[in-house]
Amino acid sequence: TAVRREWFDVVGFSAGSEARLDWLPACIAAVRRASCHREIAVLVGGPVFTLRPHLARQVGADATASDGSEAPGLAESLLAGRVKRS
Q: 3-state SS string over the chain?
């Protein structure tokens, strides 16, 4: 609902384990469909992506941050086009 009503440049998701990834691809796809910003960037993070960064692409994210302190800079780079989206 929020992405439908408000403009967001980036949205982020965190997952602690692969057992929690089953819902994530559908959720990311739903956010992209609903967003009033057609090119919304999606970041993922959490322990599962730190151990297996390739899973970011599998769930439909544009990038993964290794920790919360890295996420803002990565988001800025995505928006500026300095980081190629997955």
A: CHHHHCCCCEEEEECCCHHHCCCHHHHHHHHHHHCCCCCCEEEEECHHHHHCCCHHHHHCCCEECCCCCCHHHHHHHHHHCCCCCC
Domain span at 64: 2-80
Cα atoms in the Cβ-side hemisphere of radius 13 Å centred on 17:
1
Model confidence pLDDT, tens digit, residues 40-53: 999 999 999 999 99
N-terminal to C-terminal alpha carbon distance within the chain: 25
Q: What is the pLDDT of residue 4?
A: 94
Domain assignment present for 50: yes
> Is 86 among the domain residues?
no
Say what the pTM is: 0.88
Indicate whether 23 belongs to any domain. yes
